[in-house]
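hey so i finally got around to running the thing on that chain from the lab meeting. sorry it took forever, my laptop kept dying and i had to restart like 3 times. anyway pasting the input first so we r on the same page abt which one it is
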Amino acid sequence: MNIPTVLIVDDEPDLLDLADLTLARMGLNVDRAASVGAALERLKGRPYDLCLTDMRLPDGDGLEIVRHINANAPLTPVAVITAFGSADNAVAALKAGAFDYLSKPVSLEQLRTLVRTALKVPHHEAGGARKTRLVGDSPPMQQIRAKAEKLARSQAPVFITGESGTGKEVAARLIHELGPRAGKPFLAVNCGAIPENLMESEFFGYRKGAFTGADSERDGFFQAANGGTLFLDEVLDLPMAMQVKLLRAIQERCVRRVGGTAEEPVDVRIISASHQDMADAVEAGRFRHDLYYRLNVIDLRMPALRERREDIAPLVEFIIERVGGHAGSFRPSLSPDALAALRQYSFPGNVRELENILERALALGDGEVIKADDLDLAPARPGGEAASAAVGEGLPLQDYLDQVEREKIIQALEQTHGNKTAAARLLGVTFRSLRYRVERLGIE
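ok and heres what got predicted. didnt touch it at all, straight out
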């Protein structure tokens, strides 16, 4: 059996000795380097299973090593050591592709946890075929799956954006399942569904007797997800008081139960999501600027179903296979006119709406073939896509696109009674983007 080899880069002999001894006791081989130049020479000479580098080195900084490894050995995880309180450095390293980070003074328990997690990274599986629930081979979905592969090899926080029903939780689960935490818990939390007065105890747990009704000790979300991934859906719905506590838990990697005095370490990867724009929430004062930088290290946008209509047919097949029949019974199919109707439909509720449409048709249908009438699709709005195409016939391409864009924006503003923030959310763009388009198109 090959023994993993770790490269440690630091100009402090004491830290090098301590890390070397700790990893040797874990049964690992260790190579050492005291500068960027020495590290790059060692990296040219042989492959490593893990690299751990200080950010400040005599001839440069650790980001040079991070970038070199990502460019030349992208399957090798690299972690950085940052000075105490240097949150900006940690975020910069994660954005550059670092697997994780440690803060000085280095905790040996955190070092061991990081190394154990990193060495479980599936080095040779990145290009292999996997069965996932992100169905479809359209260019947007191919990009999503490729990015999920890369994100799975990192511990950087990910913020997933996209309209409701686009599969944000499915993408988060995929990142978890492809990474080294796959055998550990994946816990999904809907932040908007938790009463404000229960948030702290739900997230961090509580001690027996902490409040009326606390007749036993209970773990919170962080303890339940320890070693795995905590998915915070609709994270922008968190109240300000909870945002402060969440920021501390992420920075310190420790939580304190309600009614407790001691902090307990937790090892979780945070993936968050929202259908709202996080930058707009920060600008409006609804979300903390420092928490924004902690959660939005890497962003992943899930496309709307109308942006990948070529995936509708495989999605239909997948959904029908999952819910459309029992073993030994027939599996219904869609008639050509039903599939054509679905391809022309706008799907404001995205994949979730497609699931509901098909489940309803399967439940109410009485034949082996689902026809267009069985789908019970909402009628197209007057002046919709078909009408727009007819009106725009003969126009130059840019004029036609401007016309369609103007109509969509006006419809959204009418629906939201002129509220541009709500209209931007409805259109799936940022407030600043909508404001620019309104000005460019001369919409009053």
